[in-house]
Write a structure and sequence with these properties.
mainly alpha, two-stranded antiparallel ribbon, 9 helices, 181 residues
Length: 181
């Protein structure tokens, strides 16, 4: 696009060695490269800030929580697996992955994760003990199974004495067996 001749300023002195008049550049145009560089640096800064590892992790956690709430277990599984790449021993993440595996019907894999988090003979992670006891109770109500579920619930209460879910499941076991607290 060319400028109208009225907007181009010409000096009366020709450039040295040239027979043409010299063009005068407006002052603001001289600042354009610096302004462009500032804009590019700001955009790169914003892009870098949004890609920080803690922000990416937070996005994965939010997506996993939303997927679990929507029972989109495949998406939740991908999120938990990606999060576990950065923190492979994070107990809440391992428990979340176990829940997604249960939702996907992969109970053998879920049981393996849960047994690692909540061994029957060690304190372990209280929420994992509760989930494992719940799975055991849903599968069977024979006396030996009830004892195993009860052992997991006692372990959960050792780790977290105020765990309401563990207390509720323990009360359910006691009610089914005719015992009292």
């Amino acid at each position: 696009m060319t400028r109208p001749a009225s907007r181009i300023r010409r000096t009366s002195e020709p450039a040295a060695g040239a027979g043409r008049p010299r063009l005068r550049v407006p002052r603001w145009a001289a600042a354009m490269p610096a302004l462009a560089m500032i804009v590019v640096m700001l955009l790169l800064g914003v892009a870098g800030w949004s890609q920080r590892p803690d922000r990416i992790e937070a996005r994965y956690r939010q997506t996993a929580d939303a997927a679990m709430a929507a029972e989109d277990f495949r998406t939740a599984r991908v999120c938990y697996e990606r999060l576990l790449q950065a923190s492979p021993t994070d107990k809440p993440l391992l428990l979340g992955l176990a829940r997604t595996l249960l939702g996907l019907g992969q109970s053998a894999e879920a049981a393996q994760l849960l047994q690692g988090l909540a061994p029957a003979d060690a304190p372990g992670y209280a929420p994992a003990h509760v989930l494992l006891a719940e799975q055991i109770l849903n599968a069977s109500t024979d006396p030996q199974t009830l004892q195993l579920a009860e052992a997991h619930l006692h372990r959960a209460l050792e780790a977290d004495p105020h765990n309401v879910d563990a207390r509720a499941l323990l009360a359910r076991i006691y009610a089914n067996t005719g015992r009292s607290l």
